[in-house]
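B., you asked whether I could sanity-check this one before it goes into the benchmark set. Here's the sequence:
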Amino acid sequence: MKTLNFGTNYVRFAFGDLTVIALRDGYVDMPPSRLRQASGRAFGSDLPAQVILVEGRLRLSVNAFLIVDRDQHTLIDTGAANAWLPTMGLLLRALHEAGVARESIGTVAFTHTHEDHVNGLVAADGSDAFPNLDRLFVPQEEVSMFDEYERLARYRQRRLPFGDGFRIDRSITAIQAHGHEVGHTAFQVSSRGETLLIWGDIIHVPSIQFENPELSWELDADQSQARSTRQRMLRLAAQPNFFVAGAHLDFPGVGTVAVCGDAFRYTPL
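And here's what the prediction gave me:
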């Protein structure tokens, strides 16, 4: 996997026979109390010094990833558009900057249904962000959660539930990664002996959760399950010729994972 070109809001990678484009939707600042100790208790004055804060808050990048297989364009997650904070909603700008017409995207698949992953289906002007969308995949455990978004009502009859092991296409397979949300899913992308694990919200605070994967996130639906899943995903990603892509890893959010004793080390690509 190697970088081909990049701009402010995108990075294009060659990946086997495929092209992968990391897209920046923006960022969200969260209180440090969102990071939880293994006991579930929030940090206070004992917050580890290695945790990077911006004006006293945790800054989480918000990323989406486009897989291009010949003329087939599959987008994993869609960002928040204008549905949350003004620091997000750059996805369509990122696509334009990368020279990708939004009309070319025929498939969207969600890692889970939190607002910073699904609301970008609708552009800020209220139009369909991807007017030629043909397939819309939602984790089967979260279909009812998706249907609660009034903003996305037009898609309720179009969403397609999927589960563990489902093949989006010849290169992309869904992997159960529950914990952060009840249907949280990773996508394993394979081509010519390389594997990319697009893992959604497995890691929220990269400055410490690789080294201390037992640390959890307040907004995890099941912190214990999320902790177990994180360990499993990290061990999977530490194999040779594996890369990871994370929604909240510092943009562009792509890199490699290595085992370091009982911990892990992340190296941005």
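One thing to flag: The helical segments are 91-97, 115-118, 143-147, 206-209, 223-237. Otherwise nothing jumped out at me.
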